[in-house]
Amino acid sequence: MVEAGQPAPDFTLSDQHGKPVTLSKLKGSPVVVYFYPKDDTPGCTKEACGFRDGFAGYTNAGAIILGVSPDGSESHAKFAKKFNLPFTLLADPGNKICEAYGVWKEKNMYGRKYMGVERTTFVIDRKGIVRTIFPKVKVDGHSAAVLDAIKGNP
C-alpha cells in the first residue's frame, strides 16, 4: 500500500474517451485519485455523484479528480454520460494500477471470497506526493472530507 509522504506511483491509463492520461503530467495541481469497484453500481454511483456535486469546490481549489476502476473506457463513457460526471474516469482493466496502489484486495461478500477494488482515495499534492489516504471509504460525506484535505494540503 502506498503511504502518505511518499511520491505517488506514476501511471498512464486511458480515460473515458480512450485518451491517455499520465499522472506525472498533472504536477502543479492537487490531484484526487479515487479507486472504485465498478461503474453504475449503487455505492460507486453515489460516490461519483458526490464528487460531481462538489466539483465546483475542487475546481476552485485547482484540483483534478481522477476516478479509477477495472472497467473499460466504453463503460466509463456510459457511466460519465448517464450521471453527467464532469471529471476523468480511467480504465485499469488489468488491475496493474490498483495493485500498485495496494487497493486490489481479497474481498468477501455473502461468504464468497474474490479479488476486487477496495474503495480508497488518495490526495496528491502539487509536487506529486501523497498527502492523505482515505482507506475503506464510506461514501456518505466522503467528497466533502476529501475537499477539506485538499484545502489543508494545497
Bin the helical content: 25-40%
Proportion of beta-strand residues:
25-35%
Helix/strand/pairing class, anyone? alpha+beta
Measured on Cα atoms, how large is the radius of gyration? 14 Å
Euclidean distance between termini CA atoms: 23 Å
Which stretches of 5+ consecutive residues score pLDDT under 50?
none
Strands ordered across the widest β-sheet: 2-1-5-4-3-8-9
- What sequence of helices (H) and strands (E) makes up the elements? EEEHHEHEHEEEEH
How many helical elements? 5
Strand count, sense and barrel status of the largest sheet are: 7 strands, mixed
Shape: globular
Find the count of extended strands (DSSP E, 2+ residues).
9
Mean pLDDT: 94
Question: What's the short story on this structure?
Answer:
This protein has 154 residues and is α+β, with helices and mostly antiparallel strands. It is built from five helices and nine strands, in the order βββααβαβαββββα. Helices cover 29% and strands 29% of the residues.
